[in-house]
Amino acid sequence: MSDHKVSIRVNGRERADEVEARLLLVHYLRQVCGLTGTHVGCDTSNCGACTVLLDGQTVKSCTVLTVAVDGSDVVTVEGVSADGELSAVQQGFQACHGLQCGFCTPGMVMSALGLLLENPDPDDAAIRAGIEGNLCRCTGYQTIVESVRWAAAHGGAGLGQGASR
User: Fold this and answer.
1) For position 139, what pLDDT does the model report?
2) In CATH, what number is assigned to the domain containing residue 95?
3) Would 47 disulfide with which of 41, 85, 104, 155, CB 3.0-4.6 Å?
């Protein structure tokens, strides 16, 4: 198979790589970029563990071909903190115990950021709707809702490393 050149801004840094046409964005981020915070869960778009921001919108990176995002801006969980400081969403997950095993957490954080970019002051119903594409087998979701509510009250969707909408 022939490789295709792509230029993608990942977490505020320009990248130029050659990739196979069939390479999924989740595998590009993990294998080529070395950003393993984006998890591979189900490979069927059901779990949301691979959620990232693509040009400011949440997407499940297991459903997107890397060649399709040429020229785009991608933000992973590694790109939401700046200068070692956790984002408000990450702080909310910490303060409200919005994680247990942690496997779903990167996708949850990215979905929460996407929600807060759209709605900086969501009620609980909006939060639940905003994370509905992400599965968690540990928390029962209530602490995740509380985490997002905390984040909304403490800085919202501030992103680091030039990763703004």
Assistant:
1) 86
2) 1.10.150.120
3) 41
